[in-house]
Specification:
Elements lengths: L10 H17 L5 H8 L5 H13 L3 E2 L8 E2 L1 H11 L7 H10 L7 H16 L2 E5 L8 E9 L3 E8 L4 E7 L6 H15 L4 H14 L2 H17 L9 E4 L13 H13 L1 H11 L4 E5 L11 E10 L2 E11 L4 H25 L1
Antiparallel strand pairs: 1-2, 3-7, 3-10, 4-5, 5-6, 8-9, 9-10
Organism: Rhodanobacter hydrolyticus
InterPro entries: GAF-like_dom_sf, HrcA, HrcA_C, WH-like_DNA-bd_sf, WH_DNA-bd_sf
Function: Negative regulator of class I heat shock genes (grpE-dnaK-dnaJ and groELS operons). Prevents heat-shock induction of these operons.
Length: about 350
């Protein structure tokens, strides 16, 4: 049975394994055969249960942490549990109402909305809440203005569909008069509002190649300004983390060296961002248990994520980081609902603009 899979478990073994893991996730203690006999509701003897547990241990699904008769699930056992044994329930009405109340569409900037989501995930799960921040250029442009500055510089004021405002100073090859800047801004606002900046730049370059002589100067000015204004730009932190200190209360993560490595990962963010970006590229819920994440700092942790975005466009991922001993049947619906509400809020904001 060393390569045992979920479809190879009979109904009785599946029920016992589910009961063992459910009990362990509640109290964190090894589960003995007598306790399992009572909690599973099966009419089998403790000796029969011990034999089944021995088979499951040989298969690598449970382990004995010490000489006691009790067993705990291994990461592989937890993986089988969340893949095929868990019984997910819809998010309770009061918790869904809380998410809807605290993640309202159209009332804040996207960054504020994502910050609220990160804090809510942490508060509702008692673990760390994580949300990736999309690039601002992934949102349609609502309006822009050009303000002349000395030395051929221009202040660019960009207003995006998510209510975010960005100010950028760009350097031109030669100065443009205030009238020329106003004409270029009017041209872009009239023809390209509602598009993302990469699309605006591509349209302007195409128009510049096709424009007649009377439009060449206007389109050339607009193209130069757009190329400078829409260049890649750092929008701040790429991932928001809330509630890291909640993990200090988790007995499984109480080792000081482990906590130090985990907090350093939250601080540096690079590895965490890569993990979350890979999650955003996959639809639905993704779950990593222990070493499955490939991120050494998260060994001993579980990561539950779901992607969010607007129709046809993924913008990022939301998630929860906690110990492997977490109430998956509760955490997964919270993450799913948060991702769905974020998507709804961003879609409404984009439609309203």
């Amino acid at each position: 049975m060393s390569r045992l899979h979920s479809h190879e478990l009979d109904a009785r073994t599946r029920r016992l394994l589910r009961s063992l893991i459910a009990q362990y996730l509640v109290d964190g203690e090894p589960v003995g055969s007598r306790t399992l006999s009572r909690s599973s509701g099966l009419d089998v003897s403790p000796a029969t249960i011990r034999n089944i547990m021995a088979d499951l241990e040989e298969a690598g699904l449970v382990a004995s942490p010490h000489t006691s008769a009790g067993r705990i699930p291994t990461p592989r056992g937890l993986r089988l549990f969340v893949d095929s044994l868990i019984e997910l329930q819809p998010l309770p009405h009061e918790e869904m109402a809380r998410l809807q109340r605290e993640l309202p569409p159209g009332q804040t900037t996207t960054r504020d909305l994502l910050g609220n989501a990160s804090a809510l995930l942490s508060a509702m799960t008692r673990f760390a809440g994580v949300v990736t921040v999309p690039r601002q250029v992934d949102f349609p442009l609502r309006h822009l203005d050009f303000v002349p500055l000395p030395d051929a510089r221009v202040l660019v004021i960009l207003v995006f569909s998510d209510n975010q405002v960005q100010n950028r100073v760009v350097q031109l090859a030669k100065p443009l008069e205030g009238r020329e800047l106003e004409q270029a801004a009017n041209y872009i606002n009239t023809h390209f509002v509602g598009l993302r900046v990469d699309d605006i730049r591509a349209h302007l370059l195409a128009e510049l190649r096709a424009a007649g002589s009377e439009l060449n100067r206007l389109v050339a000015n607009a193209t130069e300004l757009a190329t400078a204004s829409f260049a890649p730009h750092a929008d701040g932190d790429d991932v928001l983390v809330s509630g890291q200190t909640n993990l200090m209360a988790c007995a499984e993560l109480a080792d000081l060296q482990r906590l130090r490595e985990l907090f350093e990962a939250f601080q540096q963010k690079n590895g965490l961002l890569q993990l979350m970006e890979s999650c955003a590229r996959a639809p639905g819920v993704r779950l990593f248990i222990g070493e499955e994440s490939g991120f050494a700092a998260l060994d001993g942790c579980s990561v539950v994520t779901a992607s969010y975005g607007t129709p046809g466009r993924v913008l990022g991922a939301v998630g929860v980081i906690g110990p492997t001993r977490m109430a998956y049947e509760r955490v997964i619906p919270v993450v799913q609902a948060t991702a769905g509400l974020l998507s709804d809020a961003l879609n409404r904001a984009a439609t309203a603009s």
